[in-house]
């Protein structure tokens, strides 16, 4: 199902394209002057199949791609990375042969997963690449979330076949953070950078607030007050305010409500990668990890850290809990060797 504006100069630019009995059935295309007319026609056409059962069972004839299209139309388009997510789902559906959604099985998914690991599944550009176990788990989570949402809508009939599939068990990755000497060196080099005067400012702000680079780079004067910054358009789609010191406030302050910085992600990524070559993947994100790590090592509260970082789930924040100075300190006092010493 699709409604789009062709923008071709036609007096009826809105195209409605739908498959009442599924992708394998007849396609209906019709143009309209307004989007409202196209939507009304789509609803009428899709309702026809419900009123005429001899034309086929709509629910049983819809393929996995049909269901993904439905999810995208009703929910997916609201996500932050809508197009990227939708394309990943299409690769998954096509990789499993786009079965009728009612015929999707756990076996189909696990075979697809094995083929992904072997590099036998092509992307939408026809390229075949091997993926990691972590990527397979992420794709599992994604497709499962789509099915769960469709069940909430009342569109996915029957069981969720992915609920029977166990994810790969992975070693927990160690989140790298900067040492004190590395922070000093990084800031000093950034302050002396001749081309980007905003470089040291945004590095200091991220280290002071735990902000993601994208959140910090998008800040405007309207989001800055004494002595606080308010991050909007966040990953979790919730605004959050974080206190800052007087020094940071004066460093980043600009008159007016316009952008505070003019610097791109790639500039910061390359700069940090060159100054701290031991970092493998998290060159820009390491500033956020560094804030969280030192916050806990300096005795910070895990619940407060969750709010500062804007994590929706406390499990994300708990990755830093082991850095707290009192984490599991009872192991020293209550291990069995102490019992031996008392006898």
TrEMBL record:
Presence of the UniProt keyword rRNA-binding in the record: no
Its GO biological process terms?
DNA integration; DNA recombination
Top-level taxonomic group = Bacteria
SUPFAM superfamilies from the UniProt entry: DNA breaking-rejoining enzymes
The residues covered by the Tyr recombinase domain are 173-333
The GO terms describing molecular function are: DNA binding
Q: Which UniProt keywords apply?
A: DNA integration, DNA recombination
Q: Which PROSITE patterns did the record assign?
A: TYR_RECOMBINASE
In Swiss-Prot or TrEMBL terms, this protein is called Integrase
Organism, by scientific name, is Vibrio diazotrophicus
What lineage, starting at the top, does this entry show?
Bacteria, Pseudomonadati, Pseudomonadota, Gammaproteobacteria, Vibrionales
